[in-house]
Design a protein that fits this description.
single chain; Ribosomal Protein S5, domain 2; elongated
């Protein structure tokens, strides 16, 4: 089987995911998930969620390259990319992953700053006199 490619996105983070048959290795940015995230266990669990839901933790090798955003956004982008790659690998995974919301791209992003304001919505203090 050839490598399967998928892209995951969240905020400004992008994850390029390659999936192939294997023994369950997960390489992110050239290292392990522990080297990438350190002690952030909750975020590691979020990254592994699609593999655990589809019961594929020991049957596929995954190589991921991430760029943009922060750790949390990158982790969600990786999760999205792995989910899409699993569906491309086997269409039956769609019925398993979709109810968990793993195939939906989280469209929330930072609102743009408007002119005359300090931030997107914060305004200067109102003065009556």
């Amino acid at each position: 089987m050839a490598k399967i490619y998928a892209t995951g996105r969240r905020k400004t983070a992008v994850a390029k995911v390659w999936l192939e048959n294997g023994s369950g290795e997960l390489t992110i940015n050239g290292g392990s998930i522990d080297a990438w995230l350190g002690g952030l266990e909750a975020i590691k669990k979020r990254v592994m969620q699609p593999l655990e839901v589809a019961k594929q933790t020991t049957s596929v090798n995954i190589v991921v390259q991430t760029l943009g955003g922060g750790y949390s956004a990158q982790a969600d982008a990786v999760r999205h990319g792995i989910s899409r790659a699993l569906v491309a690998y086997d269409e039956q995974f769609r019925a398993i992953l979709k109810p968990h919301g793993l195939l939906t791209r989280d469209a929330r992003s930072v609102e743009r700053k408007k002119y005359g304001r300090k931030k997107a919505r914060k305004s200067v203090q109102f003065s009556k006199r």
